[in-house]
Design goal:
The chain has 16 helices and 7 strands. The chain is α/β, with parallel strands linked by helices and about 375 residues long. It has 2 domains: about 120 residues, no CATH class; about 200 residues, HUPs (Rossmann fold), CATH 3.40.50.
């Protein structure tokens, strides 16, 4: 395990590859942004949008996938109010046991701001069982739900005959997931190859689920994209101030409600991520034990690049919070999956990366690596 020389990105992030200079792809990309003419990039986007015409009877110019959070709120407002584009917002609905009131309120806020919203709601029984099977097999119950989250947007686009999807950040350039890299910095048609979607639905079929039960978890094929001339464009490539914090600062004055539970319960430094449910902090904690980084690392990496915190200062923050997750959230998660808290930790400990962590006789997990230096 080694760290980027500029930020705290470890080379254990899936699909990443450091340069010969020891710098991660996200830092390399950020360094190049100082030479960008952002007005020119916005003009490129305007030209793309001007060249695409609505089909007869259509009322929307594009689709934006939303959760009601900071990124999707900013995207929706920016394309409507700055570009004069009318988007159709598409939201994947969590089942009642998972969604938070905060998430419901933020989605309602977007509707009250004047947007048309289509909600996709997969069958809650299948959703729950898939989460349980995913946790048992991968120690990751989000394998299925993230596939549904990403699949619902192009599915709705195909059904509504809308041939343009505006997405947020480019995971290849802004996070370092290089398999999602397209032909240009804004080409999102390789989003299907990002690590989040890598497991596909084959494992679900192997567990005995029928194709008809997995419609919500089926990402449209390349052939379907080509036949419909459907394209995904990353909006983050056009926005020079795209970041976790900046997007929240843009969205909050427009009614976005953020978390108030504290970083000690979530690893979320500013309370601005995973606003619509409380299971994601658990997934981030498990990611930490598998790969050596969690939510806090993602935060400080952006803050380091933006010059708002030094790398040395960030090391202390990561050491303190990267593993944080509230026992209350873990208990609710276990109750939802139908397992005990002891069974949860037995599964998590079995999935801990032994090269990065050790487990003592009492079951406590400790780092082998030194944050900022590695192994």
């Amino acid at each position: 395990m080694r760290y980027c020389k500029r930020c705290l990105q470890p080379d254990t992030r899936p699909n990443t590859r450091f340069g010969d200079d020891g710098v991660c792809p996200a830092c390399t990309y950020f360094a190049a942004l100082s030479e960008v003419d952002w007005a020119e990039r916005v003009d490129i986007l305007r030209d793309i949008l001007a060249g695409r015409k609505r089909k007869p009877g259509q009322q929307h110019d594009c689709i934006i996938g939303i959760s009601g959070g900071k990124d999707s709120t900013r995207q929706a407002l920016w394309v409507r109010d700055q570009l004069g584009v009318r988007p159709l917002l598409v939201c994947l609905s969590y089942p009642p046991e998972q969604v938070t009131q905060r998430g419901v309120d933020n989605l309602s806020n977007l509707i009250e701001l004047g947007f048309d919203v289509v909600v996709s709601a997969p069958a809650p029984g299948t959703w729950r069982q898939l989460k349980r099977d995913g946790f048992a097999r991968f120690t990751n119950s989000f394998r299925s739900t993230e596939l549904a989250l990403f699949s619902c947007v192009p599915q709705i686009a195909l059904r509504y005959g809308i041939d343009l999807i505006l997405w947020g950040e480019n995971p290849a350039l802004q996070l370092g997931d290089l398999k999602a890299l397209g032909r240009t910095g804004y080409d999102g048609n390789n989003l299907r190859h990002m690590n989040t979607l890598s497991s596909g639905k084959e494992w679900m079929l192997g567990h005995g689920y029928r194709e008809g039960e997995l419609i919500a978890y089926t990402y449209p094929s390349v052939e379907e994209f080509l036949e419909a001339d459907l394209n995904i464009i990353y909006l983050g490539w056009f926005l020079g101030d795209w970041s976790l914090v900046n997007n929240a600062m843009y969205a909050c004055p427009h009614g976005l409600a953020i978390r108030t539970d504290g970083v000690e319960k979530t690893g979320d430094l500013y309370g601005i991520t995973a606003l619509d449910e409380d299971f994601t902090p658990i997934n981030q904690m498990i990611k930490y034990y598998k790969f050596g980084f969690g939510r806090t690392t993602d935060y400080v990496n952006e803050e380091i690049r933006l010059g708002r915190i030094s790398r040395d200062e960030a090391i202390g923050v990561v050491e303190r919070y990267d593993h944080c997750c509230s026992p209350q959230y873990i208990e609710a998660y276990c109750q939802y999956l139908g397992i005990s808290v002891d069974e949860f930790w037995e599964q998590v400990r079995a999935s801990v990366n032994p090269a990065l962590f050790c487990i003592d006789q009492d079951g406590q997990i400790y780092r082998r690596f030194k944050v900022g230096e590695g192994l």
